[in-house]
TrEMBL record:
Species: Hoyosella rhizosphaerae
One Pfam family in the UniProt entry: ABC_tran
Protein's recorded name: Multidrug ABC transporter ATP-binding protein
Domain (ABC transporter): residue spans on this chain: 12-246
GO CC, one annotated term: plasma membrane
Predominant location: membrane
One MF term in the entry's GO annotations: ATP hydrolysis activity
CDD domains noted in UniProt: ABC_DR_subfamily_A (cd03230)
Record Gene3D superfamilies: P-loop containing nucleotide triphosphate hydrolases
Signal sequence, renumbered to the chain: none
UniProt keyword list: Antibiotic resistance, ATP-binding, Nucleotide-binding, Transport
Any Gene Ontology biological process: response to antibiotic
SMART domains cross-referenced by the UniProt entry: AAA
Topological category with respect to the lipid bilayer: Peripheral membrane protein
Length: 314
């Protein structure tokens, strides 16, 4: 059995990762790392290289150049012991439609039994797993009869059945209704808080990314153009906040770089006449769009590591 990765060692480490198809560089010098218990969200437009990056780290695709390790091992040569410590949730799971949900999870779980350790029991008990993903009531159903949202829950169950130390999620909530999405977010927090799972996920849902991410990577044109917490990234492109309010039935909008001061002066001047006051600050969606548009306009795409800057200046 492989030894656990020491606490301070990155669980995922990528240095100058490159992927070329013919004359096209899909990944061009990608560098980042992730530590134990961290949720790292990879954002970027279609074709930016997100899925390629994840497939390399899962060991499903061989990189053209650069270095990559997951749990201290190069994914390109990861053995069965290594695979038992990782989990993958693909964009869709199309096989085994005639299996029943419980039977499939029990069957897949047997693969992980030899890889249990004193510190990590494998696999999850099926009843616990079904409850975690919200499929208890559907345990006896054939997979082919499940709805799209239920199939997606099963995808998640398949990905975590072995109690992974690292979990890769590619668009995990596609097809989820709001309730299922909320339950999935709770599951992510459970995995990181109680299982110390490191999670790398892609999503096009920027509100979801803002809720889940400890750090966000923005990938554009095959390069990481930003790496930091959602708050750090928002501050990096923060322009003027937008203040909206109503007074005597009239609606007003004002942009200012000092929203707190402006709101105080507004109330000093008009008092109780001010209604429906709203202050809208830069969020992750604004940040993402600004950085991607900057890249697409031809501006230099040098990576900015805001987390490192914060550490060096603290």
């Amino acid at each position: 059995m492989a030894d656990p990765v020491p606490e301070r060692t990155p669980v995922i480490e990528v240095r100058d990762l490159r992927m070329r198809y013919g004359t096209v560089d899909v990944l061009d010098g990608v560098t980042f790392s992730a530590h134990r218990g961290e949720v790292l969200v990879l954002l970027g437009p279609n074709g930016a290289g997100k899925t390629t990056t994840i497939e390399i780290l899962e060991g499903f695709r061989v990189r053209s150049a650069g270095d990559a390790t997951v749990l201290g091992i190069d994914p390109a040569v990861g053995n069965e012991d290594w695979r038992a410590r990782t989990g993958v949730v693909l964009q869709s799971w199309r096989d085994h439609s005639r299996w029943r949900v419980r039977a499939l999870l029990e069957n897949l779980g047997r693969f992980y039994e030899p890889y249990a350790t004193a510190d990590k029991t494998r696999p999850y008990q099926v009843d616990e797993l079904l409850e975690m993903v919200g499929l208890t009531a559907h345990a006896s159903k054939k997979i082919g009869t499940l709805s799209g949202g239920q199939r997606r829950r099963l995808d998640v169950a398949i990905g975590i059945v072995g109690r992974p130390e690292v979990l890769f999620l590619d668009e995990p909530t596609a097809g989820f209704d709001p309730q299922a999405r909320r339950e999935f977010h709770e599951l992510i927090h459970r995995l990181t808080d109680f299982e110390d799972t490191t999670i790398l996920l892609t999503t096009h849902d920027l509100a979801e990314a803002e809720k889940l991410a400890d750090r966000v990577l923005i990938l554009a044109g095959g390069k990481i153009v930003a790496d930091g917490t959602p708050e750090q990234l928002a501050r990096s492109v923060a322009g003027k906040a937008e203040i909206r309010w109503t007074r005597r039935g009239d609606h007003f909008v004002h942009a200012t770089s000092e929203p707190t001061r402006f709101a105080r002066e507004l109330f000093d001047q008009w008092g109780d006449e001010i209604e429906d006051l709203e202050i809208r600050r830069t969020n992750l969606e604004d940040t993402y769009l600004t950085m991607v548009q900057k890249h697409e306009s031809g501006a230099p795409a040098a990576q900015t590591d805001f987390a490192q800057i914060a550490q060096e200046t603290s």
